[in-house]
Amino acid sequence: MTDTLSILLFVRTPEKGRVKSRLAADLGDEMALVIYKSFLLDILAMLRNGPHPFTLCVYPPDSGEALADWLGPSFTYVAQEGNDLGEKMKNAFARSFSGGTEKAVLIGSDIPDLAIAVIDEAFRSLDTCDAVIGPASDGGYYLIGFRRDRFLPGVFEGILWGTESVFGKTLGLFHAADLSVHVLPQRHDIDTADDLQSLFARNEHSAFRESRTMSFIRENKEHILGHRFS
């Protein structure tokens, strides 16, 4: 039986020197690698505790076996296919919808404390809206989703990825196509040591305080954040 809902989780197979480049510039390649692995494990724990099926969309596209060797065979792995981020996301949605999915949302792996309640809200919004998007504080977005019958591939075209104009440009394309869009609360990608400080501060008393990411930060306060850590 085909699942009517699907989460597409975009991940990069962890490899030293090839993940979280801005964190690596602050903390070194080895520390950035361990932190990224913690992010990914925390996101997977959140998804496994939720009710929705999900697929790991893997980059580099030939690294699925290596990722499965680390995480195990219980997940579904597919390659990211395309020449840039937009084409990869567009193709991931097209593949999911062609398989019978009715509603799909795509998330990345830069917000380890993303709550399942946000994803639940995204899917609920697709009962009455054509699309859903979650703005990131850097001008990008951390979640995007569609109903199958209202999928708009054009929102992934002509975008300058990695710039502060991504969310605004995408929202404009939705409006130009006369699609109704639910906008989720803004969230913060974790890209730098300062972002880690903010993550730690906002989760000291939250359910996320027992996560792998929070535990690793506590164990490595001085090395990770130095004098910035209060």
Could you describe the 3D structure shown?
The protein is of the alpha/beta class and 230 residues long. The protein has nine helices and seven strands. The model has no long low-confidence stretch (mean pLDDT 94).
Q: Which whole number gives the mean pLDDT?
A: 94
pLDDT under 50 segments (min length 5)? none
Sheet bearing the most strands, described? 7 strands, mixed
Number of strands: 7
Strands side by side in the biggest sheet: 3-2-1-4-6-5-7
Oligomer designation? single chain
Strand residue percentage: 15-25%
Which geometry do the CA atoms define?
Answer: globular
- Any idea what the radius of gyration is? 17 Å
Structural class: alpha/beta
Number of helices: 9
| SSE sequence, one letter per element | EHHEHEHEHEEHEHHH
Fraction of helical residues = 40-55%
Our measurement of the CA-to-CA distance between the termini, rounded to an integer number of angstroms, reads: 51 Å
